[in-house]
């Protein structure tokens, strides 16, 4: 029985969502459009089975093909990042992080990271998150002037607190991360260095960002952002003992049965990322981010840190219009068919549900085939949406224009 026959209510909503994705431009920096091959694996019969354990060491019978699939995913992950060990089972980036924490620390141990408001992730010690409930976070800062990582503050915090672990890698940071510098500070105080490359993993694989290896002891990532795979997590390392601790932390530490359909989809996505076309794609993601950034700056917008070196940028709307908030901007953009998220800027005076910024990224639009000139056009549309944000009729007209761009650049089919 098809889904439409079995459950027309859900089937209709999925069709509507498909339509929404086809007819809008996705500028959320953490999203992408996966291939139909990835979706086919994710929607397969592999969802039916328990495979607790690891390849050739399962707690259930009938796992032969699962062993082969997971082993292929692991080999491809190691190949992508040039490291010795990979755990492909984490259900998400946040659970990969918690497992990595469990592998390196005991409950109550101190770690330092960048806080959420400055561009970190909630799994890096936000007060309501398990990372803060069960471990002890403190935060290093951005330089107030340059808005780049302030390594003096990293070093000062590290020497003051002697943390068990130093965490780098961010959700809203548009600049290259100097992993070697972090490692040097970690070595000065005998801390582990953990790199969470959830956002930039694809750039690392595609050669557009330096690798966290050999500097980081443990590397975590999501598989669904620039990596363009199914929603999920991944943990990488080079040390055999740490790898054992990571494996124990993922299962049985934090998770039960792995999502084998998602692991198969990860393997497919990793296979795609190892092809030469993916490198071309990633280079274009970065070129497109540069073009979008320039297009916005020449139209009077300020970008946090003054620009971007990766796939994303943080637009500080105050320089253009002191009244304009991130919430109002993101809502007007949605009405015009451009999907983005509001985001705090460093030391944002407005609360998290209002903010003074929007975060934009180019992974999804680049998958659709947009190039630099198209991104400059998107910057122009962005500017017109801001100027017409209180004019519903103008937003409807812009939405038709955006839909036309979407027709010219279809999603993967
Ligand atoms: C997106 C992100 C994550 C979490 O991923 P989920 O799959 O949503 O749990 C973790 N760390 C960073 C830096 C991220 O940007």
CATH topology of the largest domain: Aspartate Aminotransferase, domain 2
Strand order of the largest sheet: 4-10-9-8-7-5-6
The number of helical elements comes to 16
Unique ligands:
pyridoxal-5'-phosphate
Q: Globular, elongated, flat, extended or rod-shaped: what is the shape? A: globular
Give the termini distance in whole angstroms.
Answer: 23 Å
CATH top level of the largest domain is Alpha Beta
Count of distinct strands: 15
Unreliably modeled segments: none
Determine Rg (CA atoms, Å): 21 Å
The percent range for strand residues is: 5-15%
The CATH superfamily of the largest domain appears as Type I PLP-dependent aspartate aminotransferase-like (Major domain)
Largest sheet: 7 strands, mixed
Describe the structure.
The chain has 413 residues and is an alpha/beta fold. It folds into 2 domains: 39-273, 3-Layer(aba) Sandwich (Aspartate Aminotransferase, domain 2), CATH 3.40.640.10; 277-408, Aspartate Aminotransferase, domain 1. 45% of the residues lie in helices and 13% in strands. It has helices at 3-6, 8-23, 36-42, 64-81, 93-104, 130-133, 151-161, 179-189, 201-205, 240-254, 260-273, 276-297, 326-335, 363-367, 372-387, 392-408, and strands spanning 25-26, 53-54, 57-58, 85-87, 110-114, 136-140, 165-168, 192-196, 218-222, 233-237, 302-303, 312-316, 338-339, 341-343, 357-361. It has a 7-stranded mixed β-sheet, with helices on both faces. A 4-stranded antiparallel β-sheet has the order 11-12-15-14. Helix 3 packs antiparallel against helix 11 (260-273) and helix 5 crosses helix 10. The longest helix is centred in the last third of the chain and has 22 residues, at 276-297. It starts with a helix and ends in a 5-residue tail after the last helix. The model has no long low-confidence stretch (mean pLDDT 97). Bound molecules: pyridoxal-5'-phosphate. Pyridoxal-5'-phosphate binds next to helix 5.
């Amino acid at each position: 029985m098809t889904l439409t026959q079995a459950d027309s209510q859900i089937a209709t909503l999925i069709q509507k969502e498909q339509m929404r994705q086809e007819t809008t431009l996705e500028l959320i920096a953490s999203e992408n459009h996966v291939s139909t091959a990835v979706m086919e694996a994710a929607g397969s019969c592999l969802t039916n089975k328990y495979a607790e354990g690891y390849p050739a060491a399962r707690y259930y019978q009938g796992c032969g093909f699962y062993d082969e699939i997971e082993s292929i995913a692991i080999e491809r992950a190691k190949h992508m990042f040039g490291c010795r060990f990979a755990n492909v089972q984490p259900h998400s980036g946040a659970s990969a992080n918690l497992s990595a924490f469990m592998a390196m620390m005991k409950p109550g141990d101190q770690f330092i990271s960048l806080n959420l408001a400055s561009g970190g992730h909630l799994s890096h010690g936000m007060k309501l998150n398990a990372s803060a409930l069960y471990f002890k976070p403190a935060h290093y800062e951005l330089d107030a002037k340059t808005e780049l990582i302030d390594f003096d503050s990293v070093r000062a915090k590290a020497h003051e607190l002697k943390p068990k672990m130093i965490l780098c890698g961010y959700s809203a940071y548009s600049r290259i991360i100097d992993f070697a510098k972090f490692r040097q500070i970690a070595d000065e105080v005998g801390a582990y260095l953990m790199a969470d490359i959830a956002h930039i993993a694809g750039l690392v694989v595609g050669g557009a960002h330096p690798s966290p290896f050999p500097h980081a002891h443990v590397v975590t990532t999501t598989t669904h952002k620039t990596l363009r795979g199914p929603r999920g997590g991944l943990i990488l390392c080079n040390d055999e003992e740490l790898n054992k601790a990571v494996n124990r932390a993922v299962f049985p530490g934090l998770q039960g049965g792995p999502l084998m359909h998602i692991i198969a989809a990860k393997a497919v996505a990793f296979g795609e990322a190892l092809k030469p076309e993916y490198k071309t794609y990633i280079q274009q993601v970065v070129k497109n981010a540069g073009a979008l950034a320039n297009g916005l700056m020449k139209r009077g917008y300020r970008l946090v840190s003054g620009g971007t070196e990766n796939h994303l940028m943080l637009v500080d709307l105050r320089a253009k219009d002191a009244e304009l908030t991130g919430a109002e901007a993101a809502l007007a953009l949605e009405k015009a068919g451009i999907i983005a998220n509001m985001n705090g800027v460093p030391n944002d005076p407005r609360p998290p549900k209002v903010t003074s910024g929007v975060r934009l990224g180019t992974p999804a639009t680049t998958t659709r085939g947009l190039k630099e000139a198209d991104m400059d056009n998107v910057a122009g549309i962005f500017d017109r949406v801001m100027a017409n944000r209180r004019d519903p009729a103008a937003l409807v007209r812009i939405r038709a224009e955006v839909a036309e761009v979407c027709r010219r650049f279809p999603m993967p089919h």
